[in-house]
Design goal:
56% helix
């Protein structure tokens, strides 16, 4: 459940089916009748019909704001038009108004209780909002709605898997395959579930057999290659695993949707920050200049796959802390900054346009974004904004929140880069760097090189915590964290994995953090020493800086 963002017709469906959104939850009406169609067709006012067609066309094209206005116009004419209520709810969800969107989607079910498309839209929306238990409840209802309803078992399996109920997920997957024999994504889901059960040989066999199927969707194929690589790694077939990961990365890079992302986007932003946010500019505003009698976040940052999720779950187990689970709040602040002062490639110029009033405005903008996503009042609790690559925005944090604290998660650069290369991320302008191991290593030098640059000139308080130290001595490192935050020690945080098992975690580490801490991921890169040999010279300065051994033979 990453931040609510536009999902276009040709994007993978967020339900995890492996199908394109337009062929799955974005167009479930095609298979099961649009919500309310059967009951409302005879009573729909004539002028509403064309408005519904227009609104649906706008929504499926991603023009959510205009579509929302169309649906609202329809509801002024006929306020019980379930099709319009559903459409309005979907638009609100895509526009970042998730709670309101869910209210409308629930209302649509009240109007059309047995419409499968209506249920499926709600199921997916709840799942994406982290309300998996409620999503599970509606999934159970949907699968009882005849043969078409049985297809919803794919969503039911996703819910069970997210809740770590693997045997039930496997049974739902079996029923989904009976109802949807043509959907090969279900074989991927089956393989993943078997891998979670530790049956790696069965998972391997399922994947190898399915990858050979003629006409397999390219996106499903790359997902299968990624999963097969991880399974082979678990089976200690490291050379073959690397080759499979490399093949998956190559095939992903050929996808036209991936090619729209430019490798230089994030490095160019890093360069602009370094050039524009000089020490003089960063020290212009002091915390006492920006008193606004409200809370200030702590930022948890680091290179991806450096233990940020584990650190977040340790923190989240404390009664005085709220964590945000990877939301792009700082990106929103960056765009709002550009909107207020004027976008300019010269970030130094943009910084010079700031005054106290504008910075206070940006602080308020950030807080409203965070508070809108919280189900309970923040009150006196400490907010932890965890998003690893916010480490690129350290200079921006210093400008807007010079009173903030920073927790920097560190891990052996080789293990971080390897884990990024092996992980199946939703691709964007940052994650495309992980399609090859050499690009992952180069991106590491750019991101963490920027951190070292800013570390020496920022006014922010910061604490570095190493993954290896945490898994070796959890209590000691956890106490360091809470001492730094000025919070009382709660021994219960040492059982953070039990707490995490009852939370919905959106990152790829959501399975690992529901287990007690383990050391088996330390030094994993040594299984791929041959592949790392040409990359070590670039990583060596960071190994030395962060106190890792260069020669581990």
């Amino acid at each position: 459940m990453s931040s609510e963002k536009q999902i276009f017709r040709n994007d993978p469906c967020p339900c995890g089916s492996g199908n394109k959104y337009k062929k799955c939850c974005g167009n479930l009406a095609h298979h099961s009748g649009f919500p309310g169609a059967s009951e409302n067709a005879s009573t729909t006012p004539p002028q509403v019909g064309q408005l519904l067609v227009d609104a649906e066309r706008l929504r499926t094209a991603g023009n959510y704001e205009v579509a929302k206005q169309k649906y609202e116009e329809i509801l002024r004419i006929s306020n019980k038009e379930a099709r319009a209520v559903t459409g309005l709810g979907l638009c609100l969800t895509q526009l970042g108004q998730g709670d309101r969107g869910l209210e409308e989607l629930r209302r649509a079910i009240d109007l059309a209780p047995d419409e499968l498309a209506c249920l499926n839209h709600l199921i997916v929306a709840l799942f994406n909002r982290g309300k998996v238990e409620e999503s599970l409840k509606w999934s159970k209802r949907a699968v009882r709605l005849g043969p078409e309803g049985a297809k919803t078992n794919v969503l039911l399996a996703n819910c069970y898997e997210k809740l770590h109920r693997i045997e039930e997920a496997l049974e739902a997957n079996r029923l989904a395959q009976i109802a949807n024999p043509q959907i090969k994504y279900l074989k991927l889901q089956e393989a993943k579930l078997n891998a979670r059960n530790g049956d790696y040989d069965r998972a391997k066999n399922i994947l190898r057999e399915t990858i050979q199927v003629p006409g397999l969707d390219p996106e499903v194929r790359t997902q299968m290659l990624s999963e097969l690589g991880r399974v082979l790694d678990k089976l200690n077939n490291y050379g073959e695993a690397y080759d499979v990961f490399a093949q998956g990365g190559l095939e992903s890079s050929r996808n036209p949707k991936v090619q729209k992302f430019k490798l230089e986007t994030r490095p160019n932003l890093i360069k602009a920050y370094i050039k524009g946010l000089t020490e003089e500019r960063l020290k212009k505003w002091k915390p006492e200049d920006l008193k606004d009698d409200s809370w200030t976040p702590t930022f948890l940052v680091g290179f991806p796959r450096s233990g940020t999720t584990m650190t977040e779950q340790i923190l989240a187990a404390h009664s005085g802390i709220i964590t945000t689970d990877e939301q792009p709040y700082l990106e929103h602040v960056r765009y709002e900054w550009a909107r207020i002062v004027g976008a300019n490639p010269d970030i130094g110029w943009m910084a010079d346009q700031l005054d106290v009033e504008t910075i206070l405005q940006l602080r308020s903008f950030y807080r409203k974004k965070v508070e809108a996503d919280q189900e309970t009042p923040i009150g006196s609790k400490t907010i932890i904004d965890k998003l690893p690559l916010n480490i690129m925005h350290i200079g921006l944090i210093n400008l807007v929140f010079p009173d903030a604290k920073i927790i920097v998660a560190l891990r052996d650069p080789r293990d971080s880069c390897l884990s990024c290369f092996m992980q199946e991320f939703k691709l964007n302008s940052a994650m495309i760097h992980f399609l090859t191991l050499d690009r992952a290593a180069h991106f590491y030098t750019q991101v963490m090189g920027a951190w070292l640059h800013f570390r020496d000139i920022i006014t922010l308080s910061h604490l570095a915590i190493r993954y290896e130290d945490t898994v070796q001595n959890l209590e000691f490192e956890a106490k360091r964290l809470f001492d730094y935050l000025g919070l009382d020690w709660e021994p219960e945080v040492l059982q953070f994995h039990q707490y995490a098992a009852n939370r919905v975690i959106s990152t790829p580490s959501y399975v690992a953090v529901t287990e007690p801490v383990y050391t088996r991921a330390v030094g994993r890169w040594k299984n791929y020493q041959k592949q790392f040999a040409p990359l070590l010279s670039g990583l060596e300065p960071f190994l030395n800086e962060f106190d890792y051994e260069v020669d581990c033979n």
